[in-house]
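Quick one: structure for this chain?
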Amino acid sequence: MIDVHILAIDLAKRSFQVCGTALGGAVLFNRMVSRAKLETILREQAPCIVAMEACATSHFWGRFAESLGHEVRLIPPIYVKPFVKRQKNDAADAAAIAEAALRPNIHYVAVKSAEHQARAVAFRTHQSFVGQRTQLINALRGHLAEFGFVVAQGPTGIKAVGGMINNDVTQVPDAVRDIAHLYLDQIAVLTQKIDELHFKLRAATKVDDAMRRLCTVPGVGPVTADAIMAFAPDFRAFASGRNFAAWLGLVPRQRSTGGKTRLGGVSKMGQADIRKLLIFGAMSRIRWIIRRGVMPDNWLGRVLGRKPRMVAAVALANKMARTIWAMMTREQNYRIA
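Got it. Here's what it folds into:
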């Protein structure tokens, strides 16, 4: 395998498709190997270009290949799809990865360190627990509604459920009381874990300069700052704040042709977690302005005067993303213009 120029790997859990190509692009081999065999191939192969789709486990294999002296290229799957020939199978996917890696204008994904991925695990765990708690709360509210008890939305409304179902006057079957206590116990456990994770995030903002800098932006809190640090690559990889906002998906979808520009809604093709949290933060700022009852005499006030709230929130989130890029690349805190 000395003559291999690009080693394209179609990743999986146990069986991997490996396609080796020469310097000119000719396919030398394309075969399926086991996980142990793949490790052996990477160890025995002379330093070459290892190309993979940027998908699950790709960063682990990228770090492993880099430790052996290989050059790793992680390609977004959407850039690989056009090179799949006819029917889709593992061999065709591996060959398509090798073909995409040869193209000069492909944008690659940077290999994340283990510490960088650890941040993502903490954020995903926090969001998963919040989603599970919401699911349990909604299920409990639905069950109690069948017996005439309407409970307010959110964790705050659940606090009154315990006293409500334990009241002797309440006409609720004992089986329903027992089930409700099961729900309340699970909600309490999840709430405790969520508070512990949130406390760690707030503590990190006091010792991490980057997170503390991000939290100076209006509408950005510890959770949003943690998501940005967990999922955003090196900010210097973007030529401008506009490129960073486009990477997040905070730009209109284009259907332009013949010199005529046609813009639609946001594309939603970027990083969904950061985009969602930035829009939430923008909406919180807009609600605060609306509660004051006086529109500010600035850019945001003029946008709110002629656009719906959600459109204004997406525009503000786009501006926040550009501001974050400028702050992080220049290592400066937020300043009111």
